[in-house]
Every structure is written in C-alpha cells, then in structure tokens.
Amino acid sequence: MVKLPVALDFAAGIGTIEPMARVAVITNPVAGRGHGAKVRPLVLTELKRLFPDIELLESHSPGDATRLARASDAGLVIAVGGDGTIREVAAGLVGKTTTMAIVPAGSGNDFIKTLGIPADAIEACRLAAQGRARPVDAVQVTARSGSTESSFVYVNAAGFGFDARVVAEARKSSHLRGLPLYVAAVFRAVGEYRCPLVRITVNDRTWEQRVLLIAAANGRFYGGGMRIAPDAEPDDGMLDVCVADELGRFAIYRALPRLIKGTHISMKEVVMHRAAKLELDFSEPVMVQLDGDLLPGSSLNHFAIQILPAALRVITP
Q: Which residues, other chains included, contact 309 with Cβ-Cβ below 8 Å and sequence gap of 6+?
C-alpha cells in the first residue's frame, strides 16, 4: 500500500510552478517506436529554452524512470515519453509534493487526451512552463499468486484479459502508432482466445462470470484512442470499471467500432461500475496491462485495485 503524507494539501498548491523551482526532465529514448527519437532533440531544445537550468535524466530499462523520479529533489519533473514512461514517473512521484508535467512522445499517448494536454510535443513543452498544477488520482494494483505479492502504480487504465493480449500483439509491430496499431493488434489477438472465469468484488457485491476483459480506468482512453471509460474523471477519487462479458470472435469484431466511439457502454454484454476499489480473483493466470505496459509475471491471478485520491500534481491547461 502506498502511504501518502498525512497533510498533503494540493488545493493550496494549485497554480503555476515557482520560477526558481528546480526542473528535471526524464526521457525514454525508445518510446514511440522511433517517433520519440525523432521529436526528442526538438523537445530538449525547447525545454532548455523555457527552463535554462534543467537536469536531464534518461531511462534505460523498466523501473528506471520510477527510481529517477523518486530520487529527484526537483520541484518540477517533466516526463518525455509515452504512457508507460508517464506511469513510471508518476509511480516515483506518488505522495511527493513534486509537480509533474507531460510531453507526449509515445505510441498511444492516451492519458494526455483525458487531461487536455496537447498532442504536439512542442506545445506540451510550453504548457509545462505556462500551465497550472491540479490534483490527479493514481491507482495501486496489488497482484498476488500464492504467497507472492507485488504492488504497482498506474495513472490511466489497467486491463485484465483480452486487452492485455492486444498490447502484447501491438508490441510486435514496428511501423504503426496510435489507434491503427491497436486495431490491427485486436485482429491478431482474437485467434483462439479463451475468456477466463473471474470472481469480481466491487461495491460490496461479489459474483463470478467469464469475461472478455475487465478495464479499471482512471482516464477515458486506452489503446491509442479507444474510449474505454467515456465518463471517467481523473480527479474524482473513483475508478470507472468496464466489465465485458464473454464474446466470440465475430462479436468482438462487431463491438470494436463501438469501443472506439465509447458507445459500447450501452451494449447488453457490457456493465460499467464506479468504485474506489475492486478485487479480481481469476481461476487461472491472466495477462495484465498497466498503461500499455505488460505486468511482469506469468502466474498472477488475484488482484486488488485501489484508487489513490489526489496522489499527484500534474500540469494541465
């Protein structure tokens, strides 16, 4: 469980960054399947113009960005990368009074869509200098198999089941980005996919069913722009949980356009829940994705997901 400071008063700190605050920039050079490498020099040039005295930090392996963010004593930490980089930086800043800014340079760039941060990297740099800090929720996942237990933090959306398999397929592509990347991955992922049986506990109710997927969302979009949780708000202290019933291959194909538009929530096979926490107990190990990153471990089947209200300060318009 992530422990937050007892008297973390975000409301008092909403506003622009103090001019003398130290600024650190954490970059992921491999984000965005080459796109990040193209925009990174332009981004760093612009950030150096906006913030003459910045510390440049580079992530080289999974977990690096979290360690760098946690160790930084900067007043503002700017994450340059995709949703995975944002997640790692956020995980290192949860509970700190440090403010976070985001410059998108990834494949999906989904979390920025909910926050209203520009997709153009240079515009996002300028927002980092001119925007206002607002409190934003984070989410903690505790994963367990037998006596093994691990905790992770994410900020946008976690997916259990089919959408995690889609992420695994998307990783095999080197030439697509954004929504086309994930739509193509859906068609490859369907294959012989078998919907797992899961016991779900949410809002003091427990039941079992086979599911295509379960998404626990803090943001509205995932998969490069699919509106998985069209009514989600990243600062309301609640998760928007999408539970999609067992579906066959052709039903998945038919449902895809509705998922992209966000109208899937009216399908009889889909139920949306709003909750501060939920528990999932699968009858077999399942793949899990957190903000587009696959959760390590192949034998995890029990998950406790809990919102961390106002755990971050993020620069938004």
A: 137, 237
